[in-house]
């Protein structure tokens, strides 16, 4: 590759990054193009929502795991309550995640949500309620992923802090105990 | 002086030590509480060892994606409008290694969950009396597919205004599911929002079948018969879950709107020509 770049600068998972981006881009592109050129709402709706749903699935199950090592889901426990679970890799794997991968992951996530919001504003201005329906569905899928992964990342950070605090605390207490035993 | 507790400590250092001890106890207790750190896979997995520089947990994933992800779009049940769960109870009893499983495993898991949910909800089975257990792994993939299929079938059968028919059918079903769930919740019922949405979506399967048959055969009498049969089937499928979620005296209040929605969908199917 390029000798001037320090090692590890390139994407570690180019295929996953590609799929992460392609469905979002395809959904946005298809929506815009068919809103302009094709007069068939059903096709626009079905294909756009299908692409967005595929993108949701890919991000949630594949690229979230591979690019940033996070995962979230919902379970119903034995008491019949719904529990949201967040999962992350352990510390050393997390630190080995490619920076470019995670940069791409988060930025495309946010950018596509912003793009859908802009399209929503356009269709609001034009008073097109059925296009708003499509955008609503796509936007809710994108936001669900954003919220899920952001909470997952916060949980991961909290876990790092807890881990660090625990290690620090155990070291400090053992130091104190040894100090007192000497005195 | 070997006993630390006989030394009069400065009050702030005593509280510091207490705090540190609390931290230790808290972290020990709350360790496995919510976030489950997954380890890179140590058990043998059927994966092709790739000599890349990426960390071990990626190894089992690089091999499948190039071939497996493209077939995903063509698999019949497409993904959901809302969250799908990757259920952790893989049956192995170990903490979830779903972070590191190959992509094809995830796809198969989701597909099999849709099929099993469908069988639980729509067909007679011994778990019907315990609805909480039956739809434990709810997912919205199945309902999404059924709603879209119903909309497409109705739109295809319509000779005019196809787009409006589709949009109306989709909006009616989606909004109807949400409102019916809110209805149960407001009646003081114990039901989980997404579980109920999932259930109402799966109960559309008989109406899907009915709409498909009506699309093929355009005779009014046949349509009425088919729609009545599938309507009864849908209502029968939805009955145990809805009725057990609320107070027995309010059962009718919870069930009537469900029946009403299915009746209106049935009329939509009959009326379209």
TrEMBL record, chain A:
The UniProt record lists the keyword ATP-binding: no
GO biological process: one example: protein secretion
Keyword annotations of the record: Golgi apparatus, Membrane, Transmembrane, Transmembrane helix
A single cellular component GO annotation: Golgi membrane
Pfam family, one: DUF846
InterPro entries: TVP23-like (IPR008564)
Superkingdom as given in the UniProt entry: Eukaryota
Subcellular location: Golgi apparatus membrane; Membrane
Segments crossing the lipid bilayer: 28-58, 103-125, 131-150
Keyword set includes Transit peptide: no
Predominant subcellular localization, coarse grouping: Golgi
Membrane topology note: Multi-pass membrane protein
Family in the record: Belongs to the TVP23 family.
Task performed by this protein: Golgi membrane protein involved in vesicular trafficking.
Protein's UniProt name: Golgi apparatus membrane protein TVP23
Organism the protein comes from: Cephalotus follicularis
TrEMBL record, chain B:
Biased composition (Pro residues): 63-82
Residue spans crossing the bilayer: 140-158, 165-186, 192-213, 220-241, 253-272
GO biological process terms, semicolon-separated: endoplasmic reticulum to Golgi vesicle-mediated transport
Location in the cell: Golgi apparatus membrane; Membrane
Keyword Lipid metabolism: no
Keywords: Membrane, Transmembrane, Transmembrane helix
PANTHER family: GOLGI MEMBRANE PROTEIN YIP1, PROTEIN YIPF6
Membership in a protein family: Belongs to the YIP1 family.
Record's protein name: Protein YIP
Organism: Cephalotus follicularis
């Amino acid at each position: 590759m390029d000798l001037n770049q320090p090692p590890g600068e390139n994407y570690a998972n180019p295929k996953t990054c590609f799929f992460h981006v392609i469905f979002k881009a395809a959904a946005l592109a298809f929506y815009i193009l068919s809103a302009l050129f094709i007069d068939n709402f059903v096709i626009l709706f079905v294909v756009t929502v299908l692409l967005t749903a595929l993108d949701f699935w890919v991000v949630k199950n594949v690229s979230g795991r591979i690019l940033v090592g996070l995962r979230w889901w919902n379970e119903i426990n034995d008491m019949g309550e719904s529990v949201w679970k967040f999962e992350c890799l352990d510390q050393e794997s997390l630190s080995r995640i490619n920076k470019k991968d995670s940069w791409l992951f988060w930025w495309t996530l946010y950018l596509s949500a912003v793009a859908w919001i802009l399209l929503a504003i356009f269709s609001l201005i034009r008073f097109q309620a059925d296009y708003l329906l499509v955008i609503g569905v796509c936007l809710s899928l994108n936001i669900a992923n954003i919220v899920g992964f952001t909470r997952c990342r916060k949980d991961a950070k909290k876990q790092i802090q807890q881990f660090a605090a625990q290690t620090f605390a155990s070291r400090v207490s053992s130091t104190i105990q040894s100090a007192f035993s000497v005195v | 002086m070997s006993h630390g507790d006989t030394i009069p400590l400065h009050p702030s250092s005593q509280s510091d030590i207490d705090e540190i001890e609390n931290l230790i106890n808290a972290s020990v207790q709350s360790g496995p509480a919510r976030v489950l750190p997954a380890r890179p896979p140590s058990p043998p997995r059927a994966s092709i060892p790739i000599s890349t520089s990426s960390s071990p947990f990626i190894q089992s994933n690089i091999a499948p994606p190039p071939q497996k992800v493209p077939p995903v779009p063509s698999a019949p049940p497409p993904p959901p409008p809302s969250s799908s769960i990757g259920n952790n109870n893989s049956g192995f009893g170990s903490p979830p290694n779903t972070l590191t499983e190959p992509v094809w495993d995830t796809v198969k898991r989701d597909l099999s969950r849709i099929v099993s949910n469908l069988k639980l909800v729509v067909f007679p089975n011994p778990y019907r009396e315990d609805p909480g257990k039956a739809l434990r792994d709810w997912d919205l993939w199945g309902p999404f597919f059924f709603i879209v299929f119903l909309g497409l079938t109705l739109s295809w059968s319509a000779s005019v205004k196809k787009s409006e028919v589709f949009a109306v059918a989709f909006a009616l079903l989606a909004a109807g599911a949400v409102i019916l769930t809110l209805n149960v919740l407001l009646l003081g019922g114990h039901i989980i929002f997404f579980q109920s949405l999932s259930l109402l979506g799966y109960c559309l399967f008989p109406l899907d079948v009915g709409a498909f048959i009506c699309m093929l055969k355009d005779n009014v009498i046949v349509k009425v018969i088919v729609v009545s049969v599938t309507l009864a089937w849908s209502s029968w499928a939805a009955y145990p879950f809805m009725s057990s979620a609320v107070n027995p005296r309010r059962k009718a209040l919870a069930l009537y709107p469900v029946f009403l929605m299915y009746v209106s969908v049935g009329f939509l199917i009959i009326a379209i020509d």
